[in-house]
């Protein structure tokens, strides 16, 4: 892959360069642990400052409709930003807040949440797990434990994908639980959290939404493919075999994203092809990467090779 191919998801929006420049001003502090930090290697305060700067350039509102203060962009447009952020790599809540949460909120007509996301007033995490009891929007409680909540500690709000006693998939909204704690993990660029719900009162957004959750998860996996591929170009920048595999995978991702934009649905077969080719790249990076490198390079290795335990498997 040549240098001029390192931006394989080009955008007509010149503001993208300003967005990345804004983030780079915060880069020196991003990997400097603050005193009493609960995440070794990551400065949570610098991460939030960097995210706020990105929100000021419209990153959080990429997918948010214009009437709610966002850009109303396509999935393909968001991939160009995912690529740029993952080559840094930036430990900001892009996937959870700017991709997954808006897709859910748009489908459910949650205009208030969409506005908060677009303005940067809310950082949102998405948790999968828990058991729902009760009826109605406000007469609902959730029990159980959730783990691997991407950017759970960084978030103000959590969207919880839980199940009822009848095994119906239910979407809930709640402020970040007081029981949330950061989990140790191999990828410092994607911090996760766990929490226990002991009869916690929540707002029920919708019930019986398996198709919606499935579609959102598929699109999230597509963005995750881009994050892995972008990080791989830094982690193994001189390895022609890795870069060749990245080029093949990028073609599959482009096709899947274009079809998703066209048909408003992420086709399973195309997504699986993109995921399989991305997995090949991840294995190559893990097998061929040897010895110490720069901090940035090592973080990109983490991002390229760590399993996506914070997303359910592709259905």
TrEMBL record:
Lineage, opening ranks: Bacteria, Bacillati, Actinomycetota, Actinomycetes, Pseudonocardiales
InterPro entries linked to this entry: AcylCoA_DH/ox_N_sf, AcylCoA_DH/oxidase_NM_dom_sf
Organism (species): Pseudonocardia dioxanivorans (strain ATCC 55486 / DSM 44775 / JCM 13855 / CB1190)
SUPFAM superfamilies: Acyl-CoA dehydrogenase NM domain-like (SSF56645)
One example GO MF annotation: flavin adenine dinucleotide binding
Protein name: Acyl-CoA dehydrogenase domain-containing protein
